[in-house]
Structure formats: structure tokens, C-alpha cells
Amino acid sequence: MTALFQSEFFYNYRRSSSAMIGSALMAFFALAVLLGPFIVAQDPYDIAALNLMDSYKPPVWLEGGDPQFWLGTDGQGRDVWASILYGARISLFIGLVAMVASCFIGTLLGLIAGFYGGLVDSVIMRIADIQLSFPSILIALFLMSAVGTGIDKVLIALTAVGWVVYARTVRGSTLSEIEKEYVQAAKVAGLPNHKIIRKHVLPNVLTPLIVIATIQVGTFVLIEASLSFLGVGVPITQPSLGLLIKNGFDVLFSGLWWTSVFPGVAIMMLVFGINLFGDFLRDELNPRLK
Amino acid sequence: MTDAPAPMLDVRNLEMHFSLGGSVLDRLRFGKKGPRIDKPVVRAVNGVNFTIERGEIMALVGESGCGKSTVAKTIARIYKPTGGELRVDGEDVAEHDFAQMLPVRAKMQMIFQDPYASLNPRQKVRDIVAEPLLQQTKTTAERREVPKKIEALLAKVGLNAEHAGRYPHQFSGGQRQRIGIARALSVTPGLIVADEPVSALDVSIQAQILNLMKDLRDEFGLAYLFISHDLSVVHHIADKIGVMYLGFMVENAPRDVLFSRPRHPYTRALLSAAPSIKENRDKEEIELTGEVPSALSLPSGCCFRTRCPFAWDRCAAERPALRDVGDGQTVACHLIDEPERDVS
Amino acid sequence: MRDTVQQKLLEVRDLRTHFHTFAGTVKAVNGVSFDIAAGEVMGLVGESGGGKSVVGFSILGLIDSPGKIEGGEILLNGEDLVKAGEARLREIRGRDISMVFQDPMTSLNPLHTVGRQMDEVLRLHSDLDTEARHAACVEMLESVGISRAAERLKAYPHQFSGGMRQRVVIAIALLARPRLIIADEPTTALDVTIQSQILKLMRRQIAEKGASMILVTHDLAVVSEMADHITVLYCGNVVERGRTRELIEAPAHPYTRGLIDSIPDLSNRHERLKQIPGTVPDIRNLPRGCNFRDRCPRAQAICAEIEPDLMPQRGSLSAACHFPLSPGDTA
């Protein structure tokens, strides 16, 4: 730990206000996600705990507000604040799981394409190109018409599109790594190919992935929000932040703005925090020449 | 059997050609006669012959693009040769697959040019140095011996035990080259292929590494194939020298013979171009004109004729073969037959 | 003495350029002084990290944060460049002082034709009209040995080989008729036969145009053939200075002696090369006293206490050493 605090990374971190703000926002959401259920009184998905009399209460600073529900309530008496905390859990869950799956699949395919080259490389890259021309919305629609909606379908749609960036990046890094002399030295030492990939190529292609993965979580949260907004995302029983926005959208123009706007602000802050920190990481992890 | 032992390395007609351009889809072209698939070939090494005896240091010199690095990597079986024979300690390994090569790897190792790219930045020094040895150990007992051997190796190259746990970026260029040498020595090979091992080092460190390599040769009876573009380094360390141009060996001679009586025009041009710190060194002035041709389309006949000050029509028609001119010197040049054309 | 007769083109006095990094202050150039007269070639010699490239960049004002010129003077015909503003420096760059960089691959913009890059220099630094500029570019390309110059002006850098590109870079450096050319390892990346051509070319051009040159390199052999006088740098300090032949034949500083001895030369017949023991000290943590003392065979107690100043020794040589070598000493 002390090595981290004395490192150049930490030195630059302290001097970058955007990095600190970004990570503060991320930490806030991480805490919200972990501790959420314990700090809000109401479980917004427990029908029994809801009271229709509490419906559509405005935020506490407006007339008619109730200090028990500081950001207001929705049409069924759900506390907006509690919904945001629960919704953020789902959004982040989806974002993280899809990111991990994409990273795993993409990295594996990228390593194989870059290392072995030839036909394998061509095939994988052409599939990647095709994949990129399908927006995830289209894939989600296909899945919905075939097998219905659900969090798993969302994850599949996101992963199907998300792996490509890892594969491309890793393939590029792999192509340059295999020219490196220490890879040639491993060949001369008699290492078999799979060991060369595992011990020499993989550890050295991981660094740029950290930045991609970080920013992709934010990207996935946004895509999932769009999917849910269009109705092909998460089911109503497990509303993510996106679905919350949609639910509130119907009454947005009657002046009951808080059920839509606050989840929107929450998404914005989450993704903004991720992007800020991701930018800092990208500059930091960039191999510096001399 | 009282035959003389086989040379450590015996290379015959070694050829290495690379086809460029990616997969079939990338090579598709549309010409006047319709679609065709191009097959550009880089002829990096074109029929090279030489031997290295045990304990001998042979240097390969030439400028960029001459194929010397490719020869080194082909001999070390990083590439599989596209033609010719490659005998290591008597055994032809040109066609060997991975399993057959493994025992040969214990006889032949390599050290590389770039001290910053030849060590995996994520590996500790002890793991780097042990890697070739670990591929050769089969039993647990053998593996238990490895750490001690690594310590001894590090000491032999002038590093100490505490360096074993560090990472490459904590070392200077010269120290990194030493780590590379220790790695090559770990399997006690008979032949070390050294690809420009001192070119990336400062002059004062160069001297240290060259001395080390010589000491190791004296102690272990190592043979070296020493690739370099620097004639003065080669003069210091080599027993015999081969000069390469565009994938061909144009001259091969023992060191003193090559430097005092170079025969091939390219060798003479190289010697005259090398800057020297001593004033008034007895220098023949041969200035080359023009550019090095591309290895994608070699000139007909002698590959050097486009820049040779003496070229005449025979040079375009007929490729000269390497011929023995005595004292262990072989030259590939038509001037041998018509020395009156040598007017300089 | 010669110095009072010839007008000094460039005088560098006690230049200090430091880099403030996370890991400490790197004193890349720490008190460097030298003079160059018109028409002279000075070799600036040292090993990697010795600060020699930084000297060149400092003269042209090309030092960016975290680096900064902390002190000293750079007098170009009496005008102090350290105090000159960016606008004045821009006038000087390319016109009075130009630079040839090491890597011909990256010193030319791959997206512009060679002709456009050459034309740019003349547009900035001369009053010639379009036709006159074109003619000047053609003439310059031909004089650096590129045939079919008018045609080649329309080509892009990647269409030239390494040696040709370096000729183009030299042509650009010479176009505005600078009085001083700073050449930073101009031939290190080139093959030895091409290197020999380029060096001959540079010598000819300098002689014809009466320019001066600072040749920055680690290659003592190259410098011995090109330079009139040599300045040797070690860890940011000048350790020795003097006319070329004197310095090479009988240097006064043990480091110079060590450098010369460790060069394998075609006329040496030693079995073992003399090597300088040890390694270059960490430039963020220089030892007290003389920087070279840990590797010097002549070091005594005083060397660890007091840093030696650059003092005239014999003939044209000055050295910074408490126990300089006499001719005939082998260190």
C-alpha cells in the first residue's frame, strides 16, 4: 500500500482535481450500491411497504414535500431516493458484469487473432467488423422477440457488442508484442506457444484495457438506460436507473418532474465520474517516451 | 571413431524467404486482366554457407537490410528456414518441429540487441534467467537445483544475488545485457547467437560487455555467431568474418586476412567508410553511389552491381559464386577472374 | 591568441538547464560553457544522459516544462538568447540557428510533401517570391545530392530512404543560410556507408557557406574526423575542452582517456579493451565533489570533497580535474 501512496501515479492523482472528483463520484456510488439497502428505510420493491397516500410527493424543498422522502415519491408512493439507490445497484451490476464478460471474451479472441494471424485472424476480425455494425438495440430487439426480456438478455446484448473493442486493442498490442525480443527469447528457450501467450504477451497487453474497461462500465450503463427506456431492457420488477427515467417520463409533462429527472441526474453523475477518472487513468497509464 | 568432431554450426545453402501481405483477402488485387492474388516475397537470405567450430567466434557484418539479423534468427530457429541445411552439433534441425527442437535448445541460445526489449518488463530477473533452463528440467530434483544455478550465473556475469528479485526497469542498459547473457548461459550451450549485442550500448559499456563475452568463451569454450554492423567491434572480437549484402554472403575470411586484404568491392567500401579515431589511417577510398535495392526485387546477376564502381556486363548476366582464393578466404566477385578491371 | 582575433559567433556561459520531475530535480546541464567562432565545427561529446542534446535544445529555446533554463547566458553575436522572448527566438530559429535531428523518420512531417516543408522555411525567413523560392529549393536539393530534384520536391517523406531523408533534413537546415547548425546525432541512425556520404556532404556545405556547426554525438570517431575542437560532457558538466587532435592524442581528463581507450579501433591490437569500471551515476543523485570520482583510477580524497573547476592545462586543453593526465600517461 505504501508503495502506491509513494508512487508517481498517486503524486499525479493528487495534483489532478478531475481525477479526485471523478473517483469521489465513483466512490459515492459504490457506497450507495453496497450500503443502500441499509440506509434507506423503505424497500421500494416491497409492495407491502408502500403507501399510496404517499404518491407523487414533491422533493422536500418544494411545497407539499415530506422530509421522509427528501427527493419525492413516484406514482405508487416509492421513495425516489431509495429507488435511485436500488436502481443504481442494478445499473452498475449490469455494467460491471457485461464489462467483465466482454473483456474476457474480447481479450481471448484478440490474443488468438494477433498471435496466430492468418485465417484465424481474418475470421475473428471480420466477425468483429460485422458485430460493430449491429447496434446493441437491434440485438436486444431480436432477443426480445425470440426469448423475451430480462437482465440476462440485456447482458447478452451488451456483451455481443462490447467485446469488439477489447479484441481489436488486444490484437494490436499482441501484434507489436510478438515482435519484441523477449518473446523471441522465449521461443529460443523452448517455450510452447500457449505459455508464451500466457506469460509474456498477456501481462503486457493488459494496461490499456484498464482504461477501456473503466470507461466501458459508464458506456454500458448508458446503453442499458436507453434499452430500458425503449422497453427492451430490464423487466419492471427490477428497475434500473434507465427504467426509472422511463417510468417517470409519462408524467413528466404534467409537472411531476422529480421522478424522471433525479434518476437522470444520478446516471449523469455516475457516468461523469467514471469518465473523469477514466481520462486521468488514460493519461497516467500512457507509456511515456523518455 | 576418430573423426574430427562435427563443427558446432554448419550452415549450407540457408534460405529464408518471407511472403508478405497478409491473408488471401488482403492480397486481392484488380489488374487489367481481372482479379489476381499478389504474392510478394522478401528474399531475406539467399543461400548462405559457413561453419563455426567449437570455441570459435564468427562475425556476420553488413548494413541494414543485408539479412544478417534474419540469418541469426533463422539459425536460432525463431523462423523455420525455407531452404537449406542447418546442422547444430552435427544434427540437421532445419525441419524439426517443436518437440524435436527442445533438446537442441540446450545447445544453442541467443542474446539480443535491444536491452530494453529483450527482457519481459513484468518478470523478475531470476525468472527471466531461469526460463531456458526450466524448459530443460524434467524432474523435481532438477528444478530444486535451479535457484542455486541462477545465483552462480548472475555472479558469473558480474551481478549479485540481490539483483535476482528485481525487475528489468531497475537496471541500466549494460546490466540488462548481462542479464540476457546469463539467461543464454543457463543451459550451458555450445553456441550463442548474438544479434548486435553491443550496438545499443554506450562505448564504455560496450567494452565491458565485449570483454565479458570473451572471458566466457575462454572459460566455457563457447562458439559465437556475432552479428554486427560495426567493423571495429568485429575486429576486436571475431576470429573470422562473413560479409553480407542483400541476403548473399559476398566474402568470408579470417579476421586479419579480411582487414588487410579485402577482395570484394563492398568489403572495401565498408572499410573505407568506417570513421576512425586515429589520424591518417591507411585508408583506401571507395565511395558507393546509389541506394540499396529492395529485397522484394533483387537485381539480376550480382546483387551488388547497382552500386559497384567496377561493374560491367558480366555482372548483370551471371551471379558470382563464392570462390576460395587461399588463406581461408572466399569471395563472390567476377573481379577475381579479371583483376585488370580493378582500377582504383 | 586566436580567440581575440576571431569574432565569437556563439558564447555559452555557465548554462544550467534543470528538469523538475516527480523523482527529483534532474540537473541535465549544470554549468556548461564553451565558445564557437564563425566557420568552426565543435564536437559535443558524451554518453547518453550526459546532457548534450539538452544543450542543443537550450540554445534554441526548445526546452519545455518540466524543464527550464535556470541560469547562464547564451550569447549569439552578443545577444543573450536566454533573455530573448519567444517572438525573437522564432525569428532566430531556422534563420540564424537551425537544427538537424537524429531520427530522419520523425523529423519530417509525413503528411506534407518535401517541397512544401522546404518552402515553409523560406516563406518564414526570406522575402523571396514563389518562383524564387522554388528555384532555391531545387538548387539546395541538388546540392545535397538528390537527383531529379524538381520531381522529388513533390514526393512525400516516406518515399525516400533513410539516407535520402537525412539529406532532405540537412537541406532544410541549410536553406535559410544559418550561421550555426546544431546537428544532434545526425548520422547515428544511418548505415556506415551512408554515414560517410552524409558527413562528407555536411563538411562540404559548411565550408562552402561559411557556417559553424555543433556536432552532438557519442561517437568519438565521427567527431575526430569532423570537428575542429571538442567539448566533453559528463553528467551535465564540461570535463574537458580543446582542439581535436590534441584532445584525442593526449587528453588531460581521465574520463576522456577512458572513452578513447574503450573504443575498439581497427588499429588496436589489444586482447582486452580497457573499460571504464562502474556505471554512470544517477543524475538525480550526483556524488559530492567530482562526478567521475567513483570510476576514476586517479581519484584521491580531495576528489570526494571539492568539485574541480575547468582549468587550462596545456596547449588548447582545459580540464576539470584535480589530477589531470600529462601526455604519455595511460591513466
UniProtKB/TrEMBL annotation, chain A:
Full protein name: ABC transporter permease
Subcellular location, record wording: Cell membrane
Residues covered by the ABC transmembrane type-1 domain: 88-278
Pfam families listed in its UniProt record: BPD_transp_1, OppC_N
Organism placement in taxonomy: Bacteria, Pseudomonadati, Pseudomonadota, Alphaproteobacteria, Rhodobacterales
Transmembrane segments: 20-41, 92-117, 137-166, 205-236, 256-281
Keywords noted in UniProt: Cell membrane, Membrane, Plasmid, Transmembrane, Transmembrane helix, Transport
Family: Belongs to the binding-protein-dependent transport system permease family.
Automatic annotation (TrEMBL), chain B:
CDD domains for the chain: ABC_NikE_OppD_transporters
Keyword presence, Transport: yes
Membrane topology: Peripheral membrane protein
Cited SUPFAM superfamilies: P-loop containing nucleoside triphosphate hydrolases
GO annotations of cellular component type: plasma membrane
Gene3D superfamilies tied to this protein: P-loop containing nucleotide triphosphate hydrolases
A Pfam family this chain is assigned to: oligo_HPY
Main localization category: membrane
InterPro entries for this protein: AAA+_ATPase (IPR003593), ABC_transp_ATP-bind (IPR050319), ABC_transporter-like_ATP-bd (IPR003439), ABC_transporter-like_CS (IPR017871), Oligopep_ABC_C (IPR013563), P-loop_NTPase (IPR027417)
Biological process annotations from GO: peptide transport; transmembrane transport
Keywords: ATP-binding, Nucleotide-binding, Plasmid, Transport
Domain ABC transporter: 11-271
Record NCBIfam families: oligo_HPY, PRK11308.1
Protein name, per record: Dipeptide ABC transporter ATP-binding protein
Provenance organism: Sulfitobacter faviae
Lineage: Bacteria, Pseudomonadati, Pseudomonadota, Alphaproteobacteria, Rhodobacterales
From TrEMBL, chain C:
Name of this protein: ABC transporter ATP-binding protein
A cellular-component GO term for this protein: plasma membrane
GO biological process: peptide transport; transmembrane transport
Domain of life: Bacteria
One of the record's GO molecular function terms: ATP binding
A Pfam entry, by short name: oligo_HPY
Coiled-coil stretches noted in the UniProt entry, renumbered to this chain: none
InterPro entries: AAA+_ATPase, ABC_Ni/Peptide_Import, ABC_transporter-like_ATP-bd, ABC_transporter-like_CS, Oligopep_ABC_C, P-loop_NTPase
Bilayer-spanning residue ranges: none
The species this protein was found in: Sulfitobacter faviae
Location relative to the cell: Cell inner membrane
Membrane-topology annotation of the record: Peripheral membrane protein
Entry-linked PROSITE patterns: ABC_TRANSPORTER_1, ABC_TRANSPORTER_2
UniProt key word RNA-binding: no
